[in-house]
Design a protein that fits this description.
By secondary structure, this protein is an alpha+beta fold. Helices cover 26% and strands 45% of the residues. A six-stranded mixed β-sheet has the order 2-1-6-5-4-3. This is SnoaL-like protein. Pfam families: DUF1348 (PF07080).
């Protein structure tokens, strides 16, 4: 069995940390749960708001449900800090719910990677703000 690797690999410098953040943003904006899940270890651990998610299968289920509810989803991530095998990001995303209400979600994520560049831990703190369509930025 081939060893999975997701470049760039830790330890991160500013350039590789920024690249890792952009790759994550691009993957999440694809809204493809299977594609996104491949960036995580098979036993990844997440805290997303008040939910605890463990393993790729739960990641796929979580993201599938998320993107079924969050229409016209668009995300922007920004590097906040990095060291060795960890990256912290700030982010915002916008979406519309089934009733047509727009939201902007703000938050921070702390990421920890294994030696093969797969994310083994993701801790996300997120707040939602209802917005009018004319207030959209993304």
């Amino acid at each position: 069995m081939a060893i999975e690797k997701k470049f760039p690999l830790p330890p991160f410098n500013e350039e590789t940390a920024r690249e890792k953040v952009q790759l994550a943003e691009d993957a999440w904006n694809s809204q493809d749960p299977d594609k996104v899940s491949k960036a995580y270890t098979v036993d990844t651990e997440w805290r997303n708001r008040s939910q605890f998610i463990n393993g790729r299968e739960e990641v796929v289920a979580f993201l599938s449900d998320k993107w079924n509810k969050e229409n016209d989803y668009k995300l922007k991530k920004e590097l906040w800090a990095f060291s060795d095998n960890r990256i912290a990001v700030r982010f915002e995303y916008e979406f519309r719910n089934a009733e047509g209400q727009w939201f902007r979600a703000y938050g921070n994520e702390n990421w920890e990677f294994d030696e093969n560049g797969l994310m083994r831990k993701r801790y996300a703190s997120i707040n939602d703000l209802p917005i009018e369509e004319k207030e959209r930025r993304l």
